[in-house]
UniProtKB/TrEMBL annotation:
One of its GO terms (biological process) is ubiquinone biosynthetic process. This is 2-octaprenyl-6-methoxyphenol hydroxylase. Keywords: FAD, Flavoprotein, Monooxygenase, Oxidoreductase. Its cofactor is FAD.
Length: 400
């Protein structure tokens, strides 16, 4: 049986796990990253993740520190304006529109949009550049035994790894979280999200638009032109049976139905990728730490895709963890460090999970009486509410 030791073992090579491997590797730590499912790095391949990620300003620094931003920037679409539309009347026509322009508060856009399959491609390439990062796709975490001095992890190929710190980035059903005995509070909405890309005749002008009616928001996020036409990524949230009906609908009918749901703001929408379906839940682990173990990303928290929070919260987890590891490299994975990690992340994550839960419930009901509150709430998630300039600027990266 092979036995190896490392500073950090990252369990999970999804977008969060690969970012963790690149980030800790770029900082000079010895990293092993494992995932039983090899990453799918082409848009048209089976199993490709057709979601996109809107990275908000505070995530930029993490991507830079991970050596990823230079690779990603050429493919990123600026998100300059966040538009929240209420279409809760008898017809799906837009009734009230609120715009939040990043220009009012910053010289940068409020975020950048990138396809998830492309993120994986660039992240895999980045970790391959780092001699101190050992990425092992096709191999998973099998069992975990934590001791004072180390986490002893047995991999599915029989290798035993002794790590000073085990980073659980192995998703919402995290095997590591289960192995170390941390429970989670889960809220199920009976809701699913369809994620796909469309082209349309009208340009998006780098505006990201969230349209609220009922069942959940319908969000159009800018992408680069495709086949010479303006292009957007769409996340369409609906109650489960309705989402499945839409996913199975013949394409021409689907195009007509989503154009109507969009209020035809960009003219007729034309589907250009597969439709992928994602179950929607809220979840937060009871604790973000165990002996020698830190939970990050969806292993620690899951939120509905409103306000582009999920992965951005995950990168904030990694930023804090890296700061703590750098501040005391000799003590990585020790109880005091992990306690600090938990204390710095848990309250903020818990507040966001609660806030997004409320926004999602109001959007599902389409309740018109609270639409102003909803618009303000969503805008504050994007850190773009002009009247709270100072707070917002703090939220854009200054928070410790
Ligand atoms: C429709 C939709 C749109 C979204 N849009 C945004 C957005 O715009 N902005 C944003 O910030 N967030 C967004 N999110 C959230 C974001 O997509 C997720 O936070 C992110 O993809 C989750 O990444 P992850 O790496 O934590 O989990 P996962 O992608 O689930 O990765 C977990 C990995 O762990 C692996 N694994 C499983 N078992 C083991 C094992 N035994 N050992 C090792 N590895 C294992 C799995 O194979 C998997 O690769 C969106 C989510 C949805 C559903």
């Amino acid at each position: 049986m092979t036995r190896i030791s490392t500073d950090i073992l990252v369990s999970g090579g999804g977008v969060a796990g690969l970012t963790a491997a690149a980030l800790f590797g770029s900082a000079g730590f010895r990293v092993i990253c494992v995932d039983p499912a090899p990453p799918v790095t082409e848009e048209t391949a089976d199993g490709a993740d057709l979601r996109t990620t809107a990275f908000l300003q505070p995530s930029l620094k993490v991507l830079q520190q991970a050596g990823l931003w230079d690779r990603l920037a050429p493919f990123a679409t600026d998100l300059q304006v966040m538009r929240i539309v209420d279409a809760g009347g008898k017809t799906p026509a837009p009734r009230i529109t609120r715009d939040f322009n990043a220009r009012d508060v910053s010289s940068l856009p409020f975020g950048w949009n990138l396809p998830n399959w492309l993120l994986r491609r660039e992240m895999v390439a980045r970790v391959a550049e780092l001699p101190n990062v050992d990425f092992r796709p096709g191999i998973g975490t099998k069992s975990v035994l934590t001791r004072d001095a180390e986490a002893l992890v047995t991999l599915t190929d029989g290798t035993r790894v002794s790590a000073r710190l085990l980073v659980a980035a192995d998703g919402r059903n995290s095997p590591v979280r289960e192995a170390v005995g941390i429970g989670a509070r889960t809220i199920r909405y009976g809701q699913k999200a369809l994620a796909f890309a469309v082209t349309h005749p009208e340009p998006h002008h780098n505006v990201s638009t969230e349209i609220h009616r009922s069942g959940g928001p319908f969000t159009l996020v800018p992408l680069p032109d495709r086949d010479g036409k303006p292009c957007s990524a769409i996340v369409w949230m609906e109650r489960g049976p309705e989402a499945l009906r839409l996913a199975a609908m013949p394409e021409a009918e689907f195009n007509a139905e989503m154009t109507a749901r969009s209020g035809a703001i960009y003219g007729p929408l034309n589907l250009v990728t597969r439709r992928t379906v994602w179950p929607i839940i809220s979840q937060i682990a009871h604790s973000f730490r165990a002996d020698r173990t830190a939970l990050v990303a969806e292993a620690a928290h899951v939120v509905p895709p409103i306000g582009a929070q999920g992965l951005n919260m995950s990168l904030a987890d990694l930023r804090v963890l890296l700061e703590l590891c750098r501040a005391a490299p000799a003590q990585i994975g020790e109880p005091a460090m992990l306690e600090l990690y938990h204390r710095r992340r848990y309250p903020e994550v818990a507040a966001r999970v609660t806030g997004i839960d409320v926004l999602n419930r109001t959007s599902m009901q389409g309740a018109p009486a609270i639409r102003d509150l909803r618009a303000a709430g969503i805008a504050s998630l994007y850190a773009l509410k002009p009247v709270r300039k100072t707070l917002m600027q703090l939220g854009m990266g200054a928070r410790g």
